[in-house]
Amino acid sequence: MRPVQIGLLGLGTVGEGTARVLFKNAEEIARRAGREINIAHCCSRNQSLAAELSLTNVLTDDPFAVVNNPDIDIVVELFGGDEPARELVITALNNGKHVVTANKALIALHGNEIFKAAQEHGVTVGFEAGVAGGIPIIKTLREGLAANTIEWLAGIINGTANFILTEMREKGSDFSSVLKQAQELGYAEADPTFDVEGIDAAHKLTILASIAFGIPLQFEKVSITGITGITPQDIEYANELGYRFKHLGIAKRTDKGLELRVHPTLIPKKRLIAHVNGVMNAVVIKGDAVGSTLHYGAGAGSLATASSVVADLVDITRALTTDSENRVPHLAFQPDALSDLPIVAEDEVASAFYLRLRATDESGVLAKITGALADRDISIEAFLQKEPVQVGDDVDIIVLTNKIQQQQIKAAIAELSGLDVITEDITCFHVEMFND
Q1: Are strands 74-77 and 4-9 parallel, antiparallel or unpaired?
Q2: Are 130 and 408 in contact (CB under 8 A)?
Q3: Of 64, 8, 71, 15, nearest to 305 (Cα)?
Q4: Secondary structure (H, E, C), 400-435
Q5: Residue 279 DSSP SS3
Q6: CA distance 259 to 397
Q7: Is 212 within 8 Å of 141 (Cβ atoms)?
Q8: pLDDT tens per residue, range 417-432
């Protein structure tokens, strides 16, 4: 049977890994796919790496030469970013070529357009590598858990943020020093905004939620908070109370609709996901039939991500003789069966909350704080008051609330901030127990 010819766009970290995996495991891949998979065209300006990988004879610096090459069956887009990636992918689909990509931003922002074009031309888009690197989480949601109604999912889906929080907890370092370390180790970009402000995680959550709940991709409706506001003191206090900080993407089905949120979260230390450290990723999925399942592994890296890219290539190769209407739908549900499940407004999201208040050390302070919370029908789950370092110093007061709506805690913070005993801005984070 004729080998499948692929066009590779990019020889960066993932592109190089993909080429190396295809060459190293060529025989095993062919056994699984049913035919050989060859790199027939490659776009990169890295001529020395292309020579090392024996790709010089198929090398070009024009990506459109690849997507317009009539001999190419599958285009592998590994440039990343928005443009020209979107235009290249759409051009490839319009040319009747299948596409594999590791570009989560592309899918989160333009996936609805891309999947429509793929459906119109009877081709497939593989994007397993776009979320959680080497963890086959998309295939798990789309196929392995197809019998379930998904109730919620929560994931550590950005390795950079998880590395920073792990180092802050284990070494007591502050955010800025750990961020610098992450940049020196290559875990964080020179501009780390997408990672530390939660944008990258929100791209990935958008994709997971769409597949889990059968809704269109809606990145613009994700509530996003980064990790820059977490201090070593917060991490220490959380530990004293039996919790760990993790930066989570959460999608949860409720009576009001679907919650889509990315934010720092306190998790009980007894939960397995609380022990996912460093640059590793993990996703917990709660299905009505299977219960809770945890999926753990490398969230990034050359070969780990390449593993997912090549898995998509094998899947598409297997399906080349299958009618397009009989293939697994891109977003798990049939295109005409996507739901209009509403997205819950940020203020109506319900969870427990962690509050850190800086207050004067005098009698009556606790009564004022508990009174303000009671005025908003907020009950207290746990309470911690730290001793002043010196007589007359202000003190930290930590409050864990029971589950309430976000608008309640916002109103309470506004009232508390007006008290004359509160001396600094109040810190607030979500707390998730994952009992339901």
Answers
A1: parallel
A2: no
A3: 15
A4: EECCEEHHHHHHHHHHHHCCCCECCCCEEEEECCCC
A5: coil
A6: 30
A7: yes
A8: 999 999 999 999 999 9
Could you tell me if 211 and 139 are in contact, meaning their C-beta atoms sit under 8 angstroms apart?
no
Asked if 103 and 111 touch (Cβ cutoff 8 Å), the reply is no
CATH superfamily of this structure's domain 137-298: Dihydrodipicolinate Reductase; domain 2 (3.30.360.10)
- Which whole number is the average pLDDT over 16-38? 95
Q: Is the pLDDT of residue 354 over 90?
A: yes
Asked if 386 is an active-site residue, the reply is no
User: Which residues have C-beta within 8 Å of that of residue 255, sequence separation ≥ 6?
Assistant: none
Q: Could you name the CATH architecture of 346-431?
A: 2-Layer Sandwich (3.30)
pLDDT digits (tens, 9 = 90+) for 63-122: 999 999 999 999 999 999 999 999 999 999 999 999 999 999 999 999 999 999 999 999
Which residue reads 């050390």 in tokens? 361
Q: Which of 419, 115, 313 is nearest to 397 (CA)?
A: 419
CA atoms within 13 A on the CB side of 330: 29
| Interacting residues of 308 by C-beta distance below 8 A, sequence separation 6+ | 102, 128, 129, 133, 134, 135, 136
Rg of the chain, C-alpha, whole Å:
24
In one letter, which amino acid is 326? N
Annotated domain spans of the chain: 4-133+302-337, 137-298, 346-431
Catalytic residue (one of 97, 104, 139, 204): 204
Give the residue from 109, 345, 402, 132 showing the smallest Cα distance to 248. 132
Per-position DSSP letters for 112-149, written without gaps between them: HHHHHHHHHTT--EE-GGGSSTTS-HHHIIIIITTTSP
Q: Which of 411, 403, 358 is nearest to 380 (CA)?
A: 403
- The answer to whether 355 touches 404, Cβ cutoff 8 Å, is no
Whether this prediction's pTM lies above 0.70 is answered by: yes
Domain 4-133+302-337: give its CATH superfamily: NAD(P)-binding Rossmann-like Domain (3.40.50.720)
Q: Which two tokens stand for residue 435?
A: 């009992």
